[in-house]
Amino acid sequence: xxxxxxxxxxxxxxxxxxxxxxxxxxxxxxxxxxxxxxxxxxxxxxxxxxxxxxxxxxxxxxxxxxxxxxxxxxxxxxxxxxxxxxxxxxxxxxxxxxxxxxxxxxxxxxxxxxxxxxxxxxxxxxxxxxxxxxxxxxxxxxxxxxxxxxxxxxxxxxxxxxxxxxxxxxxxxxxxxxxxxxxxxxxxxxxxxxxxxxxxxxxxxxxxxxxxxxxxxxxxxxxxxxxxxxxxxxxxxxxxxxxxxxxxxxxxxxxxxxxxxxxxxxxxxxxxxxxxxxxxxxxxxxxxxxxxxxxxxxxxxxxxxxxxxxxxxxxxxxxxxxxxxxxxxxxxxxxxxxxxxxxxxxxxxxxxxxxxxxxxxxxxxxxxxxxxxxxxxxxxxxxxxxxxxxxxxxxxxxxxxxxxxxx
Length: 407
Prior knowledge:
Elements: H1 22-51, H2 56-83, H3 88-103, H4 111-139, H5 145-173, H6 176-182, H7 184-197, H8 211-216, H9 220-233, H10 240-254, H11 256-285, H12 290-299, H13 302-309, H14 315-343, H15 349-377, H16 379-399
């Protein structure tokens, strides 16, 4: 029996499939611009929260609730997109809502204002995610999913690299509020790129598809895959917590302003590593067993967790944390999508990607809230939780051997 997730797919044609087309480029560029705006807001958000007296627990709650709301948006967006003849307009609307939510931080004066903007923006992000993944899968082939999704994630991370750099510039030159207001520009560019460059492949709408029936129709092995993703996701806390922890750790030594600048600079380095990791892991996924590469990526989360458990607040310590966090996250985000695209039959891609995104979102909801709370109690407890969940998910994914499905 063919191992659909554990063996690389073999092309029936001698000629390599052409995967770098208008749709892939359009989605990748939209991810770049959208992430510029998103990261401009995310990088400065802990500074804004610190200025209004919010704690790590409050930040964890904000990120957790936003991810939880996003997860339900992803589920119903994936289901709803299977009923539509054209999915692209739903993605365009999602990008626009995300841009508006991030820009609303410019008006925030209390931590709950940030909560409302983050939740609203993440609902838009959730609505577009499964649609984007389906459009990507239909624009390429199983033989090149790794490279296509890796390229899209790499471009996304280039945006994540540029966003914090622009934040440092805008906060210095214009102030914190203007930085948030300017996030609207790249967000609107992203929506325009989806509308202009993405060529949607014709598909037969399924108006009668229902949520529970659609989930029940997913291949059993894919459901096992979701269990592994969910376990690992319980330890996948928001990267904004890293920025906050570094800022707090360095404030006694450098002062609050300099500590925040240094933490944001390290986050730029994180995104540079992440960009390289996305594409390299995508190439590896087209050559080796996708589930095995993903399992290794999950296990790499142990390194920054162990490092954070060590005493002290040295620059070297946080350099290791940010670098290895970028490394493993590049593998996670690239391989989860490309592995799912391989495992899902075409008629179930919308609901399948929606369920995958929902599992990730629920994991993010619990992880950000739980890890933020545990860190407030004691950092060792928080990092032990991350280690156990990451290794647990790795074991499930590594041993999962599904049967082939019709594409």
